[in-house]
Write a structure and sequence with these properties.
The chain is mainly alpha-helical and 254 residues long. The protein has a domain of 65 residues: Multidrug-efflux Transporter Regulator, Chain: A, Domain 2 (Orthogonal Bundle). It has eleven helices and four strands, in the order ααββαααααββαααα. The strands form two sheets. A two-stranded antiparallel sheet has the order 1-2. The protein has a two-stranded antiparallel ribbon with strand order 3-4. Strand 3 and strand 4 form a beta hairpin.
Length: 254
């Protein structure tokens, strides 16, 4: 998890319930459903963070303002937690790479440009094929695009082209609506988070690659720098002259 102050568990359940205008039993129910994930003190007391409070307010908005059922809320909060975990993973990866830099370790090889392009995101299916793959009418796909539930690409001739990821999203929409009974408002929230999660993954992976590239360039610079000339030892010449010029103690005694 991210280590900023928003994720520090500080509120006991009674205070958290008061902040979000809910009964403590409701918070316990949401925890059992894994909609929220409060921390624990050394004595196993539930402690809620500012991020938990935000999640609880989001749950209340989904249920009370948008009329999303519990199955839809579970999907939304699962994606929210994935985003939180992704941010935490990125921070941990950044710290690991910075440790490598401090230790002057050999960085990992960067993937080639071909490897960086996820085949799932390549737009290949025209709308008729995409509709057949997900057992929907093409008009339904156009509706979902207007609602920004899916975001197909375009050919140079402006023809809609759907990727494998678009097909996955369409199948997920069908699962939410037909199997879980999530209303359209809930589906919009879920798909918005899915798109945000996809974008966050791509952005964070790009950031990691840039950090690794920076390490590579710095390591290359360090290895190509000419060695520094040795510094002269201070006082060596003077001390040598003194030892040569001074008479030995045996001579003085003689």
């Amino acid at each position: 998890m991210p280590s900023d102050a928003k994720h520090r568990p500080v509120y006991v359940i009674s205070v958290a319930a008061e902040l979000v205008d809910m009964h403590p039993q409701t918070l316990r129910l949401y925890e059992r459903k894994e909609l929220i994930r409060p921390g624990r003190s050394g004595g196993k007391t539930r402690l809620y963070s500012e991020r938990d409070i935000e999640h609880l307010r989001e749950i209340r908005r989904l249920t009370q303002e948008l009329g999303v059922n519990l199955a839809g809320v579970e999907e939304v909060m699962r994606l929210q937690h994935e985003l939180d975990d992704l941010q935490g993973d990125f921070e941990a990866e950044t710290e690991r790479i910075e440790d490598e830099l401090r230790q002057k370790a050999q960085p990992r090889a960067l993937p080639s440009s071909e490897e960086r392009v996820d085949p799932k995101d390549r737009p290949v299916y025209v709308i008729s094929i995409a509709a057949e793959l997900v057992d929907m009418h093409p008009q339904t796909l156009r509706l979902y695009e207007r609602k920004e539930l899916i975001r197909p690409g375009r050919s140079s001739g402006k023809t809609r082209l759907y990727s494998e990821r678009d097909i996955e999203h369409l199948r997920e929409i069908r699962r939410l609506t037909q199997e879980l009974g999530v209303n359209l408002a809930g589906v919009e929230e879920i798909m918005r988070l899915r798109h945000e999660l996809d974008a966050a993954r791509a952005n964070l992976e790009g950031n990691v690659r840039r950090i690794q590239q920076d390490i590579t360039e710095r390591m290359t610079t360090w290895r190509t720098l000419p060695p520094s000339p040795p510094e002269p030892v201070q006082g060596t010449e003077n001390s040598g002259a003194t030892s040569a010029d001074a008479p030995a103690e045996e001579d003085q005694d003689g």
